[in-house]
Amino acid sequence: MKIGDIQFNADLADILNELVSQLRANNIPYIQKMKEIPSHIQIQCPYHGGGQERRPSAGIRKDDGIFHCFACGEVHSLPEVISYCFGYTDDVVGKFGWQWLLRNFATVQVEERKDVVLDFGNRGISHVTRFNQDSDGLDRDKGYVTEQELDKYRYIHPYMYKRGLTDDVIHLFDIGYDSNTDCITFPVRDINGNCLFVARRSVKTKFFNYPKGVEKPLYGLYELSRLEKFPDEVYICESMLDALTIWCYNKYAVALNGLGNELSIAQIRKLPCRKVILATDKDEAGKKARIRLRKELNNKIVTELDYRTYPDHAKDMNDMTREEFYALGEVF
Predict the structure, then answer these.
(1) Contact between 93 and 80 (Cβ < 8 Å)
(2) Is 121 exposed, middle or buried (0-12, 13-18, 19+ CB in 10 A)?
(3) How far is CA 305 from CA 4, 280, 317, 322, 327, in A?
(4) Whole-angstrom Cα distance, residue 9 to residue 108?
(5) What predicted TM-score, i.e. pTM, was given to this entire model?
(6) 184, 206, 226, 313 — which has fewest CB within 10 A?
(7) What average pLDDT does range 132-155 have in this prediction?
(8) In whole numbers, what is the pLDDT of the chain averaged over residues?
(9) Of 229, 227, 220, whose CA–CA distance to 257 is shortest?
(10) Cβ within 8 Å of residue 67, ≥6 positions away
(11) For residue 56, what are the CA distances in angstroms to 14, 21, 86?
Protein backbone atom coordinates (compact mmCIF):
# COMPACT_ATOMS: atom_id res chain seq x y z
CA MET A 1 0.00 0.00 0.00
CA LYS A 2 1.24 3.49 -0.82
CA ILE A 3 0.51 6.40 1.54
CA GLY A 4 1.69 9.77 0.37
CA ASP A 5 4.83 8.84 -1.52
CA ILE A 6 5.95 5.98 0.72
CA GLN A 7 5.38 2.33 -0.12
CA PHE A 8 4.50 0.09 2.83
CA ASN A 9 4.88 -3.69 2.80
CA ALA A 10 1.26 -4.34 3.82
CA ASP A 11 -2.23 -3.71 2.55
CA LEU A 12 -4.81 -1.60 4.39
CA ALA A 13 -6.43 -4.61 6.06
CA ASP A 14 -3.11 -5.73 7.54
CA ILE A 15 -2.39 -2.22 8.80
CA LEU A 16 -5.82 -1.83 10.41
CA ASN A 17 -5.68 -5.28 12.01
CA GLU A 18 -2.34 -4.41 13.62
CA LEU A 19 -3.72 -1.01 14.67
CA VAL A 20 -6.77 -2.61 16.31
CA SER A 21 -4.54 -5.15 18.07
CA GLN A 22 -2.31 -2.45 19.54
CA LEU A 23 -5.28 -0.28 20.50
CA ARG A 24 -6.85 -3.18 22.39
CA ALA A 25 -3.54 -3.98 24.08
CA ASN A 26 -3.53 -0.39 25.36
CA ASN A 27 -7.22 -0.49 26.37
CA ILE A 28 -8.19 2.08 23.77
CA PRO A 29 -11.77 1.32 22.66
CA TYR A 30 -11.62 2.54 19.06
CA ILE A 31 -12.36 0.55 15.88
CA GLN A 32 -14.18 -2.43 17.33
CA LYS A 33 -15.89 -3.24 14.04
CA MET A 34 -14.59 -3.32 10.48
CA LYS A 35 -16.17 -4.31 7.19
CA GLU A 36 -14.24 -4.73 3.96
CA ILE A 37 -15.77 -3.69 0.62
CA PRO A 38 -14.03 -3.54 -2.79
CA SER A 39 -12.59 -0.01 -2.58
CA HIS A 40 -12.84 0.78 1.15
CA ILE A 41 -12.71 -0.66 4.61
CA GLN A 42 -15.56 0.63 6.74
CA ILE A 43 -14.82 1.35 10.41
CA GLN A 44 -16.43 3.03 13.38
CA CYS A 45 -15.51 6.71 13.37
CA PRO A 46 -13.26 7.66 16.31
CA TYR A 47 -14.10 11.36 15.89
CA HIS A 48 -17.69 11.27 17.12
CA GLY A 49 -19.79 9.26 19.54
CA GLY A 50 -16.72 8.16 21.44
CA GLY A 51 -15.98 5.76 18.62
CA GLN A 52 -18.80 3.53 19.85
CA GLU A 53 -21.40 3.83 17.10
CA ARG A 54 -23.33 0.65 16.30
CA ARG A 55 -22.63 0.65 12.59
CA PRO A 56 -19.42 1.82 10.95
CA SER A 57 -20.03 5.21 9.36
CA ALA A 58 -16.55 5.92 8.10
CA GLY A 59 -14.52 4.53 5.24
CA ILE A 60 -10.80 4.33 4.53
CA ARG A 61 -9.79 4.03 0.88
CA LYS A 62 -7.59 1.05 0.10
CA ASP A 63 -5.51 2.80 -2.51
CA ASP A 64 -4.30 5.82 -0.51
CA GLY A 65 -5.55 5.50 3.09
CA ILE A 66 -7.82 8.56 3.04
CA PHE A 67 -10.38 8.45 5.85
CA HIS A 68 -13.86 9.97 5.42
CA CYS A 69 -16.75 9.79 7.88
CA PHE A 70 -20.11 10.13 6.19
CA ALA A 71 -21.83 10.97 9.49
CA CYS A 72 -19.68 13.78 10.94
CA GLY A 73 -17.80 14.78 7.77
CA GLU A 74 -14.23 14.36 9.13
CA VAL A 75 -11.62 13.75 6.42
CA HIS A 76 -8.05 12.77 7.31
CA SER A 77 -5.00 10.84 6.16
CA LEU A 78 -4.37 7.44 7.73
CA PRO A 79 -1.38 8.77 9.77
CA GLU A 80 -3.64 11.50 11.22
CA VAL A 81 -6.26 8.90 12.19
CA ILE A 82 -3.64 6.73 13.86
CA SER A 83 -2.33 9.71 15.85
CA TYR A 84 -5.86 10.55 16.99
CA CYS A 85 -6.63 6.99 18.04
CA PHE A 86 -3.55 6.86 20.26
CA GLY A 87 -4.53 10.11 21.96
CA TYR A 88 -2.41 12.58 19.99
CA THR A 89 -5.43 14.76 19.27
CA ASP A 90 -3.33 17.86 18.55
CA ASP A 91 -1.13 16.03 16.03
CA VAL A 92 -3.03 17.36 13.03
CA VAL A 93 -0.28 16.44 10.58
CA GLY A 94 -0.05 12.86 11.83
CA LYS A 95 3.62 12.76 12.82
CA PHE A 96 3.06 10.04 15.42
CA GLY A 97 0.99 8.12 12.88
CA TRP A 98 3.79 8.31 10.33
CA GLN A 99 6.28 7.06 12.91
CA TRP A 100 3.95 4.20 13.84
CA LEU A 101 3.53 3.18 10.19
CA LEU A 102 7.24 3.38 9.44
CA ARG A 103 8.11 1.43 12.57
CA ASN A 104 5.59 -1.35 11.91
CA PHE A 105 5.37 -1.67 8.15
CA ALA A 106 7.97 0.28 6.20
CA THR A 107 10.54 -1.65 4.27
CA VAL A 108 12.99 1.17 3.67
CA GLN A 109 13.79 1.08 -0.01
CA VAL A 110 16.71 3.29 -0.90
CA GLU A 111 16.59 3.89 -4.63
CA GLU A 112 19.22 5.26 -6.95
CA ARG A 113 18.17 8.76 -7.85
CA LYS A 114 16.93 9.08 -11.41
CA ASP A 115 17.59 12.09 -13.58
CA VAL A 116 14.66 14.48 -13.32
CA VAL A 117 13.65 16.95 -16.01
CA LEU A 118 13.13 20.11 -14.03
CA ASP A 119 9.93 21.98 -14.81
CA PHE A 120 9.38 24.99 -12.59
CA GLY A 121 6.79 26.55 -14.83
CA ASN A 122 7.74 30.22 -15.02
CA ARG A 123 11.00 29.66 -13.18
CA GLY A 124 13.26 28.04 -15.72
CA ILE A 125 16.72 26.93 -14.69
CA SER A 126 19.81 28.30 -16.36
CA HIS A 127 23.54 27.88 -15.80
CA VAL A 128 24.18 31.39 -17.15
CA THR A 129 22.62 33.73 -14.64
CA ARG A 130 25.01 34.89 -11.92
CA PHE A 131 25.16 37.75 -9.47
CA ASN A 132 28.17 39.14 -7.70
CA GLN A 133 28.89 37.27 -4.47
CA ASP A 134 32.62 36.77 -5.04
CA SER A 135 33.81 38.26 -1.75
CA ASP A 136 32.06 35.76 0.51
CA GLY A 137 34.86 35.38 3.06
CA LEU A 138 35.21 31.60 2.80
CA ASP A 139 38.59 29.92 3.17
CA ARG A 140 39.39 28.44 -0.24
CA ASP A 141 42.39 26.55 1.14
CA LYS A 142 40.11 23.96 2.73
CA GLY A 143 39.13 22.54 -0.65
CA TYR A 144 35.74 21.36 -1.88
CA VAL A 145 33.73 18.17 -1.55
CA THR A 146 34.33 16.19 -4.74
CA GLU A 147 31.71 14.91 -7.17
CA GLN A 148 32.95 11.40 -6.41
CA GLU A 149 32.06 11.91 -2.76
CA LEU A 150 28.65 13.40 -3.56
CA ASP A 151 27.93 10.53 -5.93
CA LYS A 152 27.96 8.17 -2.94
CA TYR A 153 24.87 9.94 -1.57
CA ARG A 154 22.77 10.26 -4.71
CA TYR A 155 19.97 8.00 -3.56
CA ILE A 156 16.31 8.51 -2.70
CA HIS A 157 15.10 7.71 0.82
CA PRO A 158 11.39 7.66 1.84
CA TYR A 159 12.12 10.24 4.55
CA MET A 160 12.56 12.87 1.83
CA TYR A 161 8.95 12.41 0.74
CA LYS A 162 7.76 12.20 4.35
CA ARG A 163 9.13 15.72 4.83
CA GLY A 164 7.26 16.86 1.74
CA LEU A 165 10.16 17.23 -0.69
CA THR A 166 9.41 16.83 -4.39
CA ASP A 167 11.58 15.16 -7.02
CA ASP A 168 12.45 18.39 -8.80
CA VAL A 169 13.59 20.09 -5.60
CA ILE A 170 15.52 16.98 -4.49
CA HIS A 171 17.31 17.03 -7.83
CA LEU A 172 17.92 20.78 -7.96
CA PHE A 173 19.46 20.88 -4.46
CA ASP A 174 21.20 17.51 -4.90
CA ILE A 175 19.62 16.09 -1.73
CA GLY A 176 20.90 12.58 -0.99
CA TYR A 177 21.13 9.79 1.57
CA ASP A 178 24.18 8.53 3.48
CA SER A 179 23.59 4.90 4.51
CA ASN A 180 26.61 4.91 6.85
CA THR A 181 25.09 7.56 9.11
CA ASP A 182 21.41 6.94 8.19
CA CYS A 183 21.10 10.62 7.32
CA ILE A 184 19.72 12.77 4.54
CA THR A 185 22.52 14.81 2.99
CA PHE A 186 22.41 18.49 2.01
CA PRO A 187 25.34 19.76 -0.08
CA VAL A 188 26.07 23.39 0.79
CA ARG A 189 27.49 25.21 -2.24
CA ASP A 190 29.05 28.55 -2.97
CA ILE A 191 27.79 30.85 -5.72
CA ASN A 192 29.80 28.95 -8.35
CA GLY A 193 28.41 25.55 -7.42
CA ASN A 194 31.45 24.31 -5.49
CA CYS A 195 30.37 22.11 -2.57
CA LEU A 196 31.80 23.62 0.61
CA PHE A 197 30.57 20.87 2.93
CA VAL A 198 27.73 18.38 3.39
CA ALA A 199 25.20 18.84 6.20
CA ARG A 200 23.27 15.83 7.47
CA ARG A 201 19.84 15.25 9.03
CA SER A 202 19.02 11.94 10.73
CA VAL A 203 16.02 10.09 9.29
CA LYS A 204 15.10 8.89 12.81
CA THR A 205 15.68 11.89 15.07
CA LYS A 206 15.88 15.69 14.86
CA PHE A 207 19.68 15.48 14.84
CA PHE A 208 21.27 17.94 12.40
CA ASN A 209 25.03 17.75 11.82
CA TYR A 210 27.48 20.22 10.31
CA PRO A 211 31.20 19.46 9.93
CA LYS A 212 33.16 20.81 12.88
CA GLY A 213 34.46 24.33 12.47
CA VAL A 214 32.72 25.26 9.23
CA GLU A 215 31.41 28.78 8.70
CA LYS A 216 27.78 28.53 7.65
CA PRO A 217 27.02 30.50 4.48
CA LEU A 218 23.56 31.17 3.12
CA TYR A 219 22.00 27.91 1.88
CA GLY A 220 20.45 28.16 -1.58
CA LEU A 221 22.66 30.85 -3.14
CA TYR A 222 23.80 28.65 -6.00
CA GLU A 223 20.29 27.37 -6.73
CA LEU A 224 18.94 30.94 -6.84
CA SER A 225 21.74 31.93 -9.20
CA ARG A 226 20.61 29.28 -11.70
CA LEU A 227 17.22 30.90 -12.23
CA GLU A 228 16.76 32.53 -15.62
CA LYS A 229 15.36 35.60 -13.86
CA PHE A 230 16.09 36.47 -10.26
CA PRO A 231 12.86 36.75 -8.20
CA ASP A 232 11.67 40.07 -6.81
CA GLU A 233 11.28 38.57 -3.33
CA VAL A 234 13.06 35.84 -1.36
CA TYR A 235 12.03 34.18 1.92
CA ILE A 236 14.63 33.92 4.70
CA CYS A 237 14.38 30.77 6.84
CA GLU A 238 16.37 29.23 9.66
CA SER A 239 16.66 25.64 8.43
CA MET A 240 17.34 23.99 5.10
CA LEU A 241 14.13 21.95 5.27
CA ASP A 242 12.10 25.13 5.77
CA ALA A 243 13.70 26.74 2.71
CA LEU A 244 13.19 23.59 0.62
CA THR A 245 9.54 23.45 1.68
CA ILE A 246 9.01 26.96 0.33
CA TRP A 247 10.65 25.97 -2.98
CA CYS A 248 8.25 23.02 -3.12
CA TYR A 249 5.41 25.54 -2.72
CA ASN A 250 6.64 27.46 -5.80
CA LYS A 251 8.28 30.33 -3.95
CA TYR A 252 11.98 31.06 -3.40
CA ALA A 253 13.91 30.85 -0.14
CA VAL A 254 17.34 30.67 1.42
CA ALA A 255 18.33 29.29 4.82
CA LEU A 256 20.55 30.83 7.49
CA ASN A 257 21.58 27.39 8.80
CA GLY A 258 20.67 28.71 12.24
CA LEU A 259 19.97 32.26 13.34
CA GLY A 260 22.39 33.94 10.94
CA ASN A 261 25.96 35.19 11.12
CA GLU A 262 27.93 38.05 9.57
CA LEU A 263 28.64 36.04 6.43
CA SER A 264 25.06 34.95 5.73
CA ILE A 265 23.66 38.42 6.45
CA ALA A 266 26.23 40.02 4.13
CA GLN A 267 25.18 37.54 1.43
CA ILE A 268 21.51 38.45 1.88
CA ARG A 269 22.38 42.12 1.47
CA LYS A 270 23.98 41.30 -1.91
CA LEU A 271 20.96 39.42 -3.25
CA PRO A 272 19.59 41.27 -6.31
CA CYS A 273 16.03 41.31 -5.04
CA ARG A 274 14.11 44.31 -3.73
CA LYS A 275 12.29 42.47 -0.97
CA VAL A 276 12.99 39.78 1.61
CA ILE A 277 10.36 38.05 3.72
CA LEU A 278 11.46 36.81 7.13
CA ALA A 279 10.13 33.30 7.75
CA THR A 280 11.94 32.24 10.91
CA ASP A 281 10.51 29.89 13.53
CA LYS A 282 7.64 30.77 15.85
CA ASP A 283 9.70 30.83 19.04
CA GLU A 284 11.80 33.29 21.02
CA ALA A 285 14.95 32.54 19.02
CA GLY A 286 13.08 33.13 15.77
CA LYS A 287 11.77 36.43 17.10
CA LYS A 288 15.29 37.58 18.00
CA ALA A 289 16.53 36.58 14.55
CA ARG A 290 13.79 38.68 12.92
CA ILE A 291 14.71 41.71 15.04
CA ARG A 292 18.38 41.39 14.10
CA LEU A 293 17.69 40.88 10.41
CA ARG A 294 15.44 43.93 10.24
CA LYS A 295 18.28 46.06 11.62
CA GLU A 296 20.93 44.58 9.34
CA LEU A 297 19.01 44.50 6.05
CA ASN A 298 18.40 48.20 5.69
CA ASN A 299 19.04 48.08 1.93
CA LYS A 300 15.98 45.87 1.36
CA ILE A 301 12.24 46.08 1.73
CA VAL A 302 11.80 43.79 4.75
CA THR A 303 8.55 42.15 5.78
CA GLU A 304 7.92 39.09 7.89
CA LEU A 305 5.37 36.33 8.09
CA ASP A 306 3.01 37.15 10.92
CA TYR A 307 3.72 34.41 13.46
CA ARG A 308 0.22 35.00 14.90
CA THR A 309 -1.20 33.45 11.72
CA TYR A 310 0.95 30.29 11.98
CA PRO A 311 -1.28 27.23 12.51
CA ASP A 312 -1.31 26.09 16.14
CA HIS A 313 0.53 22.88 15.27
CA ALA A 314 3.27 24.60 13.25
CA LYS A 315 6.56 25.93 14.58
CA ASP A 316 8.16 26.45 11.19
CA MET A 317 7.56 26.23 7.43
CA ASN A 318 8.13 22.47 7.17
CA ASP A 319 5.24 21.88 9.59
CA MET A 320 2.76 23.52 7.20
CA THR A 321 0.78 22.34 4.22
CA ARG A 322 0.78 24.36 1.02
CA GLU A 323 -2.65 25.75 1.88
CA GLU A 324 -1.52 26.79 5.38
CA PHE A 325 1.60 28.44 3.98
CA TYR A 326 -0.37 30.50 1.46
CA ALA A 327 -2.82 31.57 4.18
CA LEU A 328 -0.09 33.19 6.28
CA GLY A 329 -0.28 36.90 6.93
CA GLU A 330 2.58 39.29 6.22
CA VAL A 331 3.54 42.38 8.22
CA PHE A 332 5.96 45.27 7.65
Answers:
(1) yes
(2) exposed
(3) 28, 8, 10, 15, 10
(4) 9
(5) 0.68
(6) 206
(7) 74
(8) 87
(9) 220
(10) 58, 59, 60, 74, 75, 76, 77, 78, 80, 81
(11) 18, 18, 19
